[in-house]
Write a structure and sequence with these properties.
This protein has 225 residues and is of the alpha+beta class. The protein has 2 domains: 39 residues, no CATH class; 171 residues, Porin. Helices cover 20% and strands 52% of the residues. The protein is built from 2 helices and 10 strands; from the N terminus they run αββαββββββββ. Strands 3-4-5-6-7-8-9-10 form an 8-stranded antiparallel β-barrel. Strands 1-2 form a two-stranded antiparallel ribbon. β5 and β6 form a beta hairpin. The longest helix has 26 residues.
Length: 225
């Protein structure tokens, strides 16, 4: 019984990909593949995936997520009273691994929107962290419950998933994680145009080693009208 064309095509692509990563002779060609070409495949547990320039892919994914949140917030803002479409958070970040005992530092940027006033805020962010012979890119999406302490101060508690891409000594790994974040926001004026924030966090990775870490970041709050 012959396989449907779509199934044969998928099988051919998978065979081509696997032989591409090992350098063996492909069943689709009569000659060996170019052994000088760098391997472009790594196994994340869900099958072969490309890893070259994955840092750029992570950054693009974060930008697309932030853009989607801003568009969603714009729709809510148009239906109610005049409020900022979103809040931009920019500042430095530091992380300390409780498992490995090492520290990492880097910048962080996030966009926060309010789909349900006084009940739910969404924050999407990206944080590259650097230490000796290691680079880590984290993309997270937090679901926060806000409390207004005063006209110039707010407190939130958030939790959400995170995707972490790590390049340590040339070895690339991808790990899902969960993050718990208390967030303190302070505004010098009642108009909430500019302010500053402080955001400690706890992170648990589900990847190899089940790493635990503590982090803190802080910086400027910029309202997007």
């Amino acid at each position: 019984m012959r396989s449907p064309p779509a199934r044969r095509n998928r099988q051919s692509v998978q065979e081509w990909t696997c032989f591409r990563s090992t350098g063996e002779t492909s069943p689709l060609r009569s000659e060996p593949l170019d052994e000088a070409a760098p391997p472009t495949i790594c196994d994340s547990g869900f099958g072969p995936i490309p890893v070259l320039k994955l840092e750029k892919a992570c950054l693009c994914s974060a930008i697309l997520t932030m853009s989607s949140l801003v568009s969603c917030s714009r729709a809510f803002a148009q239906s109610g009273e005049k409020e900022p479409i979103a809040i931009l958070e920019v500042g430095p970040a530091a992380s300390r691994s409780l498992t490995e005992g090492q520290s990492s530092f880097g910048p962080t940027v996030a966009v926060e929107v309010t789909p349900i006033e006084k009940w739910l805020e969404l924050e999407a962010g990206v944080t590259p962290l650097f230490r000796s012979h290691s680079t880590e890119w984290g993309i997270d999406l937090l679901f926060k419950k806000p409390w207004t302490l005063s006209e110039k101060a707010e407190f939130m508690i958030g939790v959400g998933p995170e995707w972490i891409h790590t390049n340590a000594n040339g070895v690339k790994t991808n790990s899902p994680a969960v993050e718990v974040v208390p967030d303190f926001m302070f505004w010098p004026s009642r108009k909430h145009r500019f302010g500053w924030y402080l955001e400690p966090s706890y992170e648990f990775k589900f990847g190899p080693g089940h790493e635990h870490s503590l982090a803190i970041d802080g910086g400027l709050l910029i309202a997007i009208p």
